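Extended Data, panel c. Modelled sequence:
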Amino acid sequence: MRLFQALVAGSCTGCRHGEWSEAKANAYRWLERRKPPIIIAPRARPAEGYTLFVPNNDSDTKFKRHERLTEKAVRPHRILNDGPATLHYLWDIAAEEWEQAHPLAKVLEAEARHLTTLGWGIDQAVAQGRILTESEARALGGQRWQPWDVPLSSRGKLRVPKSGSLDDLKRAYEAFRNRLSMELPPGAREPRVFGTRVYLPVGAPRRAHAATVSLSPPQKEEKPLGALPPRPHAAFELPEGVAFRAQDAARVAAMLRSLACRSAEEDTHAFPGGREVYVAGHVEHGTDVTPARFSYLPLPSIGHEHADGMIRRVLIAEPFGGDGVHARWAQQRLRNGTLRDDHGNERGVLLDLWRRSSRRVVDLYVRESQRWHSVTPVVLPGFDDGKYPKAEKLFLKAVAQAGIPMEAIESFTLRKAPFWPGATHPRHYFVPAYMRHYSRWHVAIHLWYPIPGPLALGAGRHVGLGLFAAA
């Protein structure tokens, strides 16, 4: 939206105001209706922020300067000096619309030269418009950022123009020109017609004209964008001869949760939000924000080509960044506790890890890693109607709901086939009734930076579904 505003301002500033024409207006209306552009930017890293104290722009309501001072937080990014510091905005034009779009694109190509600033009024810039071939667009160097229409996001969304944005900018400009009339509220000067999108990196940064895509290792001095704090957990193992099928992970999680609830009722330990929320997971329907709570995660046996995928170990995990107090409570109070099924039958006893192989298996789930593959299927927070693009959007929604920074994700793959020996097709897993109408997928995630486990995503992330292991 900032680029769109800057282009319109450049077309109407100073002596060019009298050159404004219906042809230019039609070109900008065509641009505002298009899918938001892909942005190609040079690599950058956050620099030290600072605060400015400046007069704000409401001198028409407060005439004394000292009453108009306000603070403005500045969060600059430093462009790394490893290539041209050029921003590219790419709009795709389909072949079937080329005949109609070409004259409009030529108008915008000429108008781009009139841009003078981008961002703040003090940020001088120059621009050039060009119509590129597909091969020329692919050769542009820099990090590509693609817009996503994600309902929930762990990061801020950027404004993008939509149908009506040009006329709204004219309205806002007229309101600014007539601000001294005091007939309109200050808010009338702000743009009102725009959409929002989350921009996520696509692939690895590439250099201009590079023949192959090369991964760019993170700089040691950079702060990882996707860094997450550790996730404290308690680990248990079942006795010899006791194991459950991986397809019954949600049933095992239910038995584990029931044992934790019984133990919490008999104890004075205080949980954030109370034991009904933190231990039992009772959350009001319709809320988008999940309060802090335990996740009950049965661990299928993996890590070997002959692994059978049976559940012999379980984790009880706090949220990321927990202080570990409640995980230690679980480790102490649930040790030697008995798992019981819905009929009250004893199904196993929780022991401390005792097999020599257990540390290695548990480590696959709790270590830091950049590559994660789902062991149990991810239950998406909705039905994808059998459409892969919709499933991708729902998966990104699940990532946001789990509190994972989406900027940490480099790429992901959804598929029905399992990634691990011993795992199986998503439809073979038991799913609680309240999420049976949701779609399920196995997922592979590649991150820009390592994050710690245990990692679980999706609507079943607290009951053993959507559990990932380090690949």
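The CA atoms of residues 159 and 196 lie 5 Å apart. This feature is highlighted in the accompanying rendering.
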